[in-house]
From TrEMBL:
EC number(s) recorded for this UniProt protein: 1.13.11.29
InterPro entries: Extradiol_dOase_DODA (IPR014436), Xdiol_dOase_suB (IPR004183)
Gene name linked to the record: ygiD
NCBIfam families on file: PRK10628.1
UniProt KW keywords: Dioxygenase, Metal-binding, Oxidoreductase, Zinc
Originating species: Pontibacter fetidus
Protein family membership: Belongs to the DODA-type extradiol aromatic ring-opening dioxygenase family.
Gene Ontology MF term list: ferrous iron binding; stizolobate synthase activity; zinc ion binding
Domain of life: Bacteria
Required cofactor names: Zn(2+)
Protein name as it appears in the record: 4,5-DOPA dioxygenase extradiol
Enzyme class, broadest EC rank: oxidoreductase
Residue stretches making up the Extradiol ring-cleavage dioxygenase class III enzyme subunit B domain: 28-253
Family matches, as CDD domains: 45_DOPA_Dioxygenase
Length: 277
């Protein structure tokens, strides 16, 4: 059982530290990755050992859309099973990490462009817990979620992310969770278990996204509609792409960029993930 001792780890204050936390964009893919021991979940475990242990994790997930911006502010967020048609073992998962109301207030206070509402109803959706339970299985690190305002566009989300930069100096791991290429209508379900099966257009645009990220051409990624029909196929709706905007907006001038879990799945999905810093 998670204790308030773990919860109180962050109440000592948001003090700056010498080491700047990295920022991640995580391709989360199927909820089944939350319970499967596969190449994606194995890398999440490996990654947690490679980066500094965070004081807290702040997730911007494709699965929490709201009008306006909200942040989870409860002591212990619930585990949300926001999906259907999966095995009962997946629905049985409870990831009992603490939240941190003080960090929620601090995060809201550093965002000046919009009033951030404290939320006590959401919790951790599968864009968060399916990944973090592999990274931090003891559930002893506070986890919060910041919602995505669905009434705004990519530039807004990119700019809002910049206001969160100071959290990187204070031990907070900020994680965007979505998928660069995410077209469920075109998934080849019969090919889901075929390694690296991707349509030509999916592989092409995924490569373009990676090149633009590597070269720091964020303006073109913000205006993804101008990247051609492949981008429109990859992003038929933007909610899984918006978390990438938060990750890119948090890049510093000296940060290195690398990719991991760079695989296509089911033809029209990619798990390609980004580490900044």
């Amino acid at each position: 059982m998670t204790t308030l001792g773990a919860f109180n780890r962050f109440t000592d204050g948001l003090n700056e530290q010498d080491q700047l936390m990295p920022v991640l964009f995580m391709g989360h893919g199927s909820p089944m990755n939350g319970i499967e021991d596969n190449e994606f979940s194995q890398y999440w475990k490996k990654l947690a050992k490679e980066i500094p242990t965070p004081k807290a994790v702040l997730v911007i997930s494709a699965h929490w859309l709201s009008k306006g911006t909200r942040i989870t502010a409860m002591d212990f967020p619930q585990t949300i099973h926001d999906f259907g048609g999966f095995p009962k073992e997946l629905f049985a998962v409870q990831y009992n990490a603490p939240g941190n109301p003080e960090l929620a207030k601090e995060t809201a206070s550093i965002i000046k462009s919009v009033d951030v509402e404290m939320d006590h109803d959401w919790g951790l959706d599968h864009g968060a817990w399916t990944i973090i339970r592999h990274m931090y299985p003891e559930a002893n690190i506070p986890v919060l979620q910041l919602s995505i305002d669905y009434t705004k566009g990519p530039q807004y989300h990119y700019d809002l992310a910049k206001e969160l930069y100071s959290l990187r100096k204070k031990g907070v791991l900020i994680m965007g969770s979505g998928n660069m290429v995410h077209n469920l209508r075109m998934v080849a379900w019969d090919k889901m278990n075929e390694p690296e099966y991707g349509y030509d257009w999916a592989k092409q645009i995924n490569s373009t996204f990676k090149d633009l990220i590597s070269n720091g051409q964020h303006d073109k990624l913000i205006k993804y509609e101008q990247l051609g029909k492949e981008a429109l196929l990859a992003i038929p709706t933007p909610e899984h792409y918006w978390p990438l905007m938060y990750t890119l907006g948090l890049k510093g001038t000296k940060d290195d960029v690398s990719f991991f879990n760079d695989k296509a799945v089911g033809g029209s999905l990619t798990m390609t993930s980004v580490r900044i810093g």
